[in-house]
Specification:
The structure is a single chain. It is built from eleven helices and eight strands. By secondary structure, the chain is of the alpha/beta class. Helix 10 links the parallel strand 7 and strand 8.
Length: 291
């Protein structure tokens, strides 16, 4: 059984539609796929329909923009009730933060003599729930300013670069509790892949487990082999689920091919069992896996 628990469609910053993603997953030899678009549920229904048609198991999820100890951290939520009011309200604040900072990013680029209009970005955002930095990056590519998204972020859009603008992100511990209240389970995405290593120590992860965290994404392209082993040891010590995934974005992110990292079947079944328990305890009509 091959399982990939972290992928994106064009409903956020991927380049494949939900239907295309499911079909690509089948071609890649996956048996189980999680769709985890940034801060939105928009692709779930379309993906579920095609997954049922193809006989591929779909786990409906989301990747939520959070902050912890002043640092950006992404949280993967699996199988929450998408109608749970506290979750809906907080996700709208996050999406509004994405959209609201866009004019400021374009102003900063204009100061660098790079003129990109809001309509240029909108034309490249397709059916995304909110326009964000990846879509600005696509506009920079279309204008010939950079070769690809990676260069756009490295030169202009990452923290510390000239066009970066901060935005609202949810408090990590509070969001873990909110997803749990919605009947879902949570996994910290690529915890040591960027600059979060200093905050997500053993003590930090232990505190997050107390808040309801279920797992750690260990096998990820941003984690070197030694980092993966250290994280695996922490997960074992804290009795957290270990996941692995591609963080696939289609052509929007290089080096993250579907199934380049996978989750062990026993860890996947453990995560689904925890989700079932959480849904019952919450009393919410949380979705099950589609198979």
């Amino acid at each position: 059984m091959r399982i990939d628990l972290h992928t994106h469609t064009d409903r956020s910053d991927g380049t494949s539609t939900p239907s295309e993603l499911v079909r690509e997953a089948q071609v890649a030899g996956l048996d189980v796929l999680a769709i985890t678009d940034h801060d939105c549920f928009e692709g779930w229904d379309e993906a579920a329909s095609v997954a049922q048609e193809l006989g591929l198991t779909l786990v409906r999820g989301i990747e939520i923009s959070c902050k912890y100890a002043g640092q950006s951290v992404h949280l993967l939520g699996y199988l929450p009730d998408p109608t749970y009011p506290p979750l809906v309200e907080e996700l709208q604040r996050v999406l509004d933060g994405r959209s609201d900072r866009l004019p400021a990013i374009l102003d900063r680029l204009r100061e660098l003599d790079i003129v990109i209009g809001i309509d240029d970005v909108r034309a490249l955002s397709a059916d995304a729930a909110a326009m964000g930095r990846p879509h600005v990056a696509d506009a920079l590519v279309a204008r010939g300013v950079v070769r690809d998204r990676d260069e756009a972020f490295a030169r202009f859009l990452s923290p510390g670069r000239p066009a970066y603008v901060d935005r609202y992100a949810a408090d990590l511990a509070t969001m873990i509790e909110t997803v749990k209240g919605a009947g879902g389970v949570t996994v910290v995405a690529h915890p040591w892949g960027r600059h979060a290593h200093s905050a997500l120590t053993f003590e930090g992860l232990a505190a997050l487990k107390d808040a309801g965290l279920s797992g750690i994404e260990v096998d990820h392209q941003d984690h070197a082999p030694d980092v993966r082993e250290e994280l695996r040891g922490l997960a074992k010590e804290l009795d957290l689920v270990v996941t692995g995934s591609s963080d696939f974005h289609g052509t929007g992110k290089t080096g993250h091919d579907l199934a380049c990292n996978t989750t062990a079947p026993e860890e996947y079944h453990r995560l689904v069992a925890l989700a079932t328990e959480t849904a019952v305890a919450s009393g919410r009509a949380a979705p099950g896996v589609v198979s």
